[in-house]
């Protein structure tokens, strides 16, 4: 569930999802100039033991620097320059951290999260950490998949500021990533009690979609998008989040509206990394790899998107696939050397589909499932376990599906073991989902059609 906000997005590396990964802070007392330089160098450092590449041609392009003419990059540079001159200005530090977090999400570049940490270095996590800094640090911890640390920080925020909609939304995202749906639903309810509109509707519908009420969730978010068309125009990021969540729910239900819903989201923002990954996965599943290649050929900076491009190249027999496999192998090795575990799901997929090493893929997928439990995490664990000839290794996924009433046609097919399908337990009563007007409207519709209890399609 990648939530959106006018200020920043608190769920970028979740469902996703793993699209950004922060650099680790090594020396909080360094000057800000040296610190930012180190963050950049550490993020770009080659794997240990690798020979450094020394260019011999002055005209060789080493990297396309993003956003050279981007107004948001210019604002960030100016704010950083001001922060260097006024290092103890906490408001300025918060502004720089927010801008860095936004760029990390936008570009899929982990170095910006290292810089966000650097901007906040004078205010580490402590009993007296200002609430605004706690919230920013919680987002960074979440992006690093330190969900426990993020939850601790967020709980301190909502204790100090119970009306912090941003904190409740971030908590919902973290709890959903951990499959703690009862807690996520509570967080969405708190969020809805302080904020009306599309965002709280999407928060609640996202939880509903994984707890036995996917058709009802899809109808609720459809109603909310109709009711809040003005909000979509005013806050495109919220619109992309809602429409992508609706598309993924439709996809899990094998609903023919999935493609239209993905295209609706792309019409708002065709550069969103998470949306591009989800849309590419749908295209790959539909045996349309040529479209993935056209979509992602210029987006190889972001590891998860390069992975999908390479899968498409492999499917078409494109000669560039081998070079991209080597690139991905180098990138994953560099991540391991940094102690970065955010992209385990992507690495498991790489090991299974591109290296053809199911045992390795299974090991990575199981480690990933220990941290985050969403449909994409379930899928790679099931696929790896089946390919490795160890279907029982994916029993935790089967339990998750059964206990939560997860509705996903593809997962249900993969989860069949010894000829036995997954039999879901009774889903949470639909009456529990009462946080938003859209949910109430969808329930009323379903009740009048006599389908509320079973969510018949």
Shape by Cα distribution: globular
* Strand and helix order: HHHHHHHHHHHHHHHHHHHHHHH
Q: Could you give a short account of the major beta sheet?
A: none
Spans of 5+ residues with little confidence (pLDDT < 50)?
Answer: 3-53, 451-457
By DSSP, the count of extended strands is 0
Helix content: 55-70%
Beta strand %: under 5%
Mean pLDDT: 83
Structural class: mainly alpha
Task: Give the structure's gist in a few sentences.
By secondary structure, the protein is mostly helical.
Verbal overview:
The protein has about 450 residues and is mainly alpha-helical. It is about 60% helix and about 0% strand. The chain contains 23 helices and no strands. It has helices at about 30-45, 70-85, 90-105, 110-120, 130-145, 145-160, 165-175, 180-195, 200-210, 215-225, 230-235, 235-250, 260-270, 275-285, 290-295, 305-315, 320-335, 345-355, 360-370, 375-385, 395-405, 410-415, 435-450. α10 (about 215-225) packs across α23, α13 (about 260-270) packs antiparallel against α14 and α16 (about 305-315) packs antiparallel against α17. The longest helix is centred in the N-terminal third of the chain and has 18 residues, at about 90-105.
């Amino acid at each position: 569930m990648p939530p959106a906000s006018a200020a920043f997005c608190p769920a970028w590396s979740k469902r996703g999802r793993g699209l950004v990964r922060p650099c680790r802070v090594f020396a909080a007392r360094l000057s800000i100039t040296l610190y930012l330089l180190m963050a950049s160098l550490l993020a770009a450092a080659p794997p240990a033991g690798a020979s450094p590449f020394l260019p011999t041609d002055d005209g060789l392009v080493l990297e396309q620097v993003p956003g050279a003419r981007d107004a948001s990059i210019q604002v960030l540079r100016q704010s950083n320059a001001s922060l260097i001159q006024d290092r103890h200005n906490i408001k300025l530090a918060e502004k720089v951290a927010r801008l860095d977090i936004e760029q990390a999400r936008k570009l899929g570049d982990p170095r910006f999260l290292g810089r966000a940490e650097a901007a906040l270095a004078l205010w580490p996590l402590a009993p007296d950490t200002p609430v605004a800094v706690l919230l920013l640090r919680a987002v960074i911890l979440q992006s690093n998949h330190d969900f426990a640390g993020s939850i601790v920080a967020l709980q301190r925020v909502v204790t100090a500021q119970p009306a912090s909609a941003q904190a409740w939304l971030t908590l919902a995202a973290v709890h959903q990533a951990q499959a703690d749906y009862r807690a996520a639903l509570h967080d969405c309810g708190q969020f809805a009690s302080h904020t009306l509109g599309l965002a709280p509707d999407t928060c609640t519908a996202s939880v509903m979609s994984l707890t036995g009420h996917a058709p009802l969730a899809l109808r609720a978010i459809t109603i909310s998008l109709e009711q809040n068309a003005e909000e979509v125009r005013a806050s495109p990021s919220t619109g992309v989040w809602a429409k992508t969540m609706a598309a993924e729910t439709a996809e899990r239900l094998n609903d023919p509206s999935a493609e239209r819903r993905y295209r609706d989201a792309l019409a708002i923002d065709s550069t969103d990394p998470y949306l591009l990954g989800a849309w590419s996965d749908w295209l790959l599943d539909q045996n349309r790899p040529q479209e993935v290649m056209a979509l992602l050929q210029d987006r190889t900076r972001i590891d998860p998107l390069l992975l999908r491009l390479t899968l498409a190249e492999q499917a078409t027999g494109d000669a560039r696939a081998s070079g991209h496999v080597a690139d991905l192998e180098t990138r994953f090795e560099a991540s391991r050397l940094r102690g970065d575990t955010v992209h385990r799901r992507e690495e498991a997929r790489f090991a299974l589909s591109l290296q053809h090493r199911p045992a390795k893929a299974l090991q990575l997928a199981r480690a990933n499932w220990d941290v985050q439990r969403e449909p994409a995490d379930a899928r790679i664990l099931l696929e790896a376990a089946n390919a490795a000839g160890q279907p029982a290794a994916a029993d935790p996924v089967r339990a998750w599906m059964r206990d939560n009433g997860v509705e996903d046609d593809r997962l249900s097919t993969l989860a069949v073991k010894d000829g036995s399908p997954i039999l879901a337990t009774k889903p949470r009563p639909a009456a529990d989902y009462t946080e938003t007007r859209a949910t109430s409207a969808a329930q009323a519709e379903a009740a009048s059609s006599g389908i509320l209890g079973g969510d018949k399609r």
